[in-house]
C-alpha cells in the first residue's frame, strides 16, 4: 500500500499542431519541454519515498533519421534518459513518445525538468505536440516490497 504525498502535471501542448512546431536543437543544446515541482516527504522516511514521472512528447521527423535524447533532471542533475529514432520519409514521420522514470529514496521538495535534444547532425526533427509531464510522489508502507 502507498500514500500519495504530492502530484503535479504540466501540459504545455494539448494536441498535435504543425503550425506550432518547434525545431529540436542539436546536442549539447537542449529544448526544455516542461518543469514540475514536487514535495517528496521527509528524510526520516526517505528509503520508502519515490517519485514516478511520466513524459509524453509528440515529435516529427523533417529531414534524415534523427536520434532524439529525452532527459529528466532533478534540481539540474540528470536522473533518467532515453532515446528515440525519428524518420522523416514515407509513412513514419509523426511519433508520440511516452516513457516513465522512477526516482527512489528522495526527500524534500524538488524541481523535475523534461528536455529533448537531437543527437544526429545533418538531420531535423520538431516537437509538434502533444507534450505532457507528470509526477506522483508516494510513500510506500513498511509491508510493501520493492
SSE layout:
Elements (H helix, E strand, L loop, with lengths): L1 E12 L8 E2 L7 E9 L9 E15 L2 E9 L2 E10 L7 E11 L4 E10 L5 E17 L6
Antiparallel strand pairs: 1-9, 2-9, 3-8, 4-7, 4-9, 5-6, 5-8
Protein name: Exosporium protein C
Organism: Alicyclobacillus dauci
Report on the structure:
It is elongated, with a radius of gyration of 17 Å. The mean pLDDT is 93. Helix content is 0%, strand content 65%. Strands 1, 2, 4, 7 and 9 form a five-stranded antiparallel sheet that branches. The protein has a four-stranded antiparallel sheet with strand order 3-8-5-6, with no helix packed on it. It has a single domain, classed as Jelly Rolls. With 146 residues, the chain is mainly β.
Please identify the top-level CATH class.
Mainly Beta
Could you say how many structural domains there are in total?
A: 1
**Helix vs. strand class:** mainly beta
Would you count the extended β strands for me? 9
Alpha-carbon distance between the termini?
11 Å
- As residue ranges, the low-confidence spans are none
If you consult CATH, what is the topology? Jelly Rolls
Q: How are helices and strands ordered from N to C?
A: EEEEEEEEE
Rg from Cα: 17 Å
Number of helices: 0
What is the overall pLDDT average? 93
What's the helical proportion of residues?
Answer: under 10%
- The coarse overall form would be elongated
Strand content: over 45%
**CATH architectural arrangement:** Sandwich
| Main β-sheet description | 5 strands, antiparallel
Amino acid at each position: 500500500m502507498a500514500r500519495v504525498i504530492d502530484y503535479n502535471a504540466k501540459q504545455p501542448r494539448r494536441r498535435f499542431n504543425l503550425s506550432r512546431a518547434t525545431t529540436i536543437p542539436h546536442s549539447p543544446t537542449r529544448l526544455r519541454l516542461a518543469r514540475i515541482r514536487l514535495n517528496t516527504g521527509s528524510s526520516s522516511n526517505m528509503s520508502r519515498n519515490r517519485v514516478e514521472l511520466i513524459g509524453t512528447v509528440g515529435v516529427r521527423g523533417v529531414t534524415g533519421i534523427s536520434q532524439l535524447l529525452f532527459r529528466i533532471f532533478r534540481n539540474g542533475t540528470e536522473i533518467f534518459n532515453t532515446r528515440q529514432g525519428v524518420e522523416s520519409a514515407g509513412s513514419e514521420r509523426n511519433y508520440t513518445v511516452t516513457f516513465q522514470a522512477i526516482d527512489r529514496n528522495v526527500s524534500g521538495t524538488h524541481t523535475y525538468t523534461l528536455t529533448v535534444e537531437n543527437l544526429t547532425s545533418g538531420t531535423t526533427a520538431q516537437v509538434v505536440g502533444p507534450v505532457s509531464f507528470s509526477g506522483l510522489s508516494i510513500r510506500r508502507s513498511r509491508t510493501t516490497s520493492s
